[in-house]
Each structure stands twice: as structure tokens, then as C-alpha cells.
Amino acid sequence: MQNSKHEWPASLIARVQAGADGAISFRDFMDACLYDEQFGYYNRDTVKIGKEGDFYTSASIGPFMGMMLAECCLRLRQEEGWGGERWQIVEWGGGTGRLAVQVLDHLQAAAPEAYETINYVLVDGSAYHRVSQQKQLERHASIIRTCSPEEWLRQPSSIAIPTIVCSNELLDAFPVHRLRYKNGRFEELHVAWDETKGAFQDRYIPLTEEPSHTELQRYIEEERLPRREDQLFEVNLAIGPWLSQIRARMNRGAIITIDYGDVREELYASHRMQGTLLCYYRHRAYDNPYVHVGEQDMTAHVNFSAVIRYGEQLGISRWKLQTQREFLIEHGILERLQEHDGADPFGAAARNNRAIRQLLWSDQMSELFKVLVQLI
After folding, report:
1. Reported pTM
2. Regarding the domain delimited by 58-174+238-273+297-375, which CATH topology (the fold level of the hierarchy) does it fall under?
3. 113 burial via Cβ count (<10 Å: 0-12, 13-18, 19+)
4. Can you tell me the distance from the alpha carbon of 96 to that of 76, in angstroms, rounded to the nearest whole number?
5. Rounded to whole angstroms, how far apart are CA atoms 339 and 73?
6. Averaged over 88-117, what is the pLDDT?
């Protein structure tokens, strides 16, 4: 399904103009740009990940992220006493299916017993991605299932078998509210349409005590947002309900969140006056969400302090937060380095070593990315 230039962004402009006072919240604008059923970025039948897409993920850089995630799952099975039982991995937002291939290939080769007793479920809202996942995972067809979030959430509320829910770069793409602190008060960013300029534009509206702002006000207090003049903040209110829905369907297991972000002290520090929102289009990063509307990825750093807090409110008291580098080293990635004579810089060993170095020492991957394991 290709977007019609006539219908889009005309339909989005109409949606904006139909909002209160001719504007909608930035959160609703971002939701439309990414998830509109007809025109949203994630529902377009175009390549998004890899060289021909708009961005790379850690699973795009060799097989090692999937291998180490598999090792983490195996360790959890052993330490939590699930060995010998039937178990499952639920990958939320499976994208192309590449990470699932890496995990299952490694389990099949390194832990046949664990492979033979696993169910692997890929949950994705994009029909385009679900088709891609089925193609990528043909050799594992007997143990995989693809479904939409609505289908997975309709299942019985308590999953009897041990379950590991994992996500890789999912939470950063949840639509966010944007706030700023100005003249002694917080304001929420809305999006309006300027007919004269033919462009979307910012419009800030003060937060009030109205019920519609209750969740934002609570977040401000619980996350201790600083009162620093002109500072912008992203507020992801979707993480709490997402985590709650998952927790309600698990008796035993773990939730593994891989994403870029940090704790509140870093995300809301004085050197982040413009927030963290970024857009990606053909491997170029922009901070302007009003260009390439519906054709670019839009993301904001994950506040892992909030994810941990939401988990604790749901009774998840055991958790561990690491950088990607720490996670990979802990689960044995350095043992995957291979000796070679350097004669063939394009040989398999050299390529693998380069991939490992990129995952461990690239500024974009090793420190920005975090891995949170929450145990149930």
C-alpha cells in the first residue's frame, strides 16, 4: 500500500483542524504519523530497517544480539528453575523477524532441549511485518506464531508456562506527549496547521487541573521534572498500561526491554534542554517532526526510571538495568571473537569481529542502549 500524495497529509491536516481550537496534542500527531491504519509509517509496505530503510537496529549488525539474548533466556531458565518445562518467548514488536531468527538459530544449535520445548510468539501491529516475519522464520515454522497486539491480549489472563516477553526498540516508538516549562508553569505542545505557510506548527497550551491533564501532572510529580525555563520534555504515558497488560497475563517469567534511553537524572539534565525527540529518514536524523510526515520514523529516549517505577507498582521488585555493552559482555560476546590472519578483511571471521566491536564500542549502540530485565 503506497501513500497517496493527495490523501496524505491532507487527511492529517483535516484531523488537526478538527481538533479543539484547530490543534491536536503532539502525542496524537505522532500516533497518526506512525500508526494511522492507512498512512502511518509502520503500516506502510516499505523497507524500514537496514541499508535500504531508514535506520539500523542491533539485530542488523551480525547475529550477536540475538545470540546473547538467547543466552540470557537460557540463564533465566536455569536460575529461575524452569528447565525441563515447556516455555515461551513473546517478542513484542518483532519487526522483520531478524532478531527472532538469531535467537532461535542459536537455541537450536546450542540448546536443543530448550529449542524443542519452546513456543515463540511475535506480536506486531503491522500486517506487513507479520508477513515478513513468517517468511524469515520458515525454517522455525513449527514453533512460531505471529499475531497482533489485540490478539495476544485477548488470551487468558494467566499464562501457565514460564514466559519471557522481550522487546527491541519498541518503547522508544510509543507516541509521547511533549512538555516545556515556561514562565513558572508547564505547557503541553500541540500541533496546528498554518494555512498561510502551508505547514504544521507548534502551539503550546498550559496544563490545567482538568481530568485530561491528570496523568501528565502525576508524571511531572513522580518523575520530578525540573522547573528549568524553556526546557522540553518527552512524556511516554503508554509504557505503564503496556507493562500492566503484560504483567496481568504472566504467572512466571521475565520482561526484557532493549532500547535506547537512560534514567531520569540523565534525560532531564540541564544539557538536554531540547529533549530527545528524533526522526529518521534514509539514515539521516532530524529533530523536525513536520517533514517527511508519515515517511520517517519518530522516536524519543526511554525513561528507564519510569519503566522500573511502573514495574514496582505492579509488584515487580526484582530488576537489573545495564548498558548494552555490559549485557553483551556478561552473556559471553567476547568469547565469540575469532582469531584470523588479517589476509581477508572481508572473510567471515573479520566480519564477525567488526560486528562485535560495533556493538560493544559504537557510541550509538554500546552506551545509549540499555537492557532492563524485570523478573516476575
Report:
1. 0.89
2. Rossmann fold (3.40.50)
3. exposed
4. 26
5. 28
6. 95
